[in-house]
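Give me structure tokens for this 280-residue protein.
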Amino acid sequence: MAQNSSIEWTDHTFNPWWGCSKVSPACLHCYAETWAKRVGQKIWGVQSPRRLFGTAHWDEPVRWDAEAEASGIRRRVFCASMADVFESRSELTDEREKLWTLVETTPSLDWLLLTKRPQNTFRFAPWSDEWPNNVWVGTTVENQHWAEIRLPQLLAVPAERRFLSCEPLLGPLDLRQWTSDRGKNLYPIDWVIAGGESGPKARAMLPGWARDLRDQCRSAGIPFHFKQWGHWAPAQKGSEGATEFWDAVEGKLIKMVPLGKKPAGRFLDGKTWNQVPRAA
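Here you go.
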């Protein structure tokens, strides 16, 4: 949990529990698993227990809500960076019920529920047609294969906002079938977050993938947030240690260098992209 989160697209982070299991290529180098191991928590995988929390932990968002109401400024809460709220495990039933109650009793907070399991949304969320207007539901979309699987499930959810976390972006993405008239029977995509993978074993995100995704969002009027290049960044003139990758979107070889997250930065074509959809 973190007040004033360092994650660029949220204000706070709240974890109702810690722990998860891997379900797709985006999970390969999971930062949350790495962090849990670093602090001695054996909570990853199907057979491992989940770390639960006490009353003091659950009271924190109530305080954030009071502060947001007093200031007149809504705050976004990312839930959950160290777990998946729609993971199917029997010991999480009571914790999930506590979460839904917390969401409903903190109306000055916009709750961003990010999942890699959108197929479980209706199974576990207590709302069907009438969702609270402070709930945003998102799913991870790392490549086209997972877009085809997860987006129809996400875009069937009548939440206030639906968003995509294309991080780590592992390949080119074509969202046009969901932003054109062919997606008219589904709810719209309201926000796209994109970024590369961090860490020494990271897979490179190529510039053409990020630019094309940005341009699709601009054409469709979807707010676009570019979070980071990650470990790899486009090589500048004279860069040492560059590796060449074939960028099919741009149709040419691209040189990338392993700089690390902070030096690589988050400029895309010379500017930052910090767009966020308007709250309810």
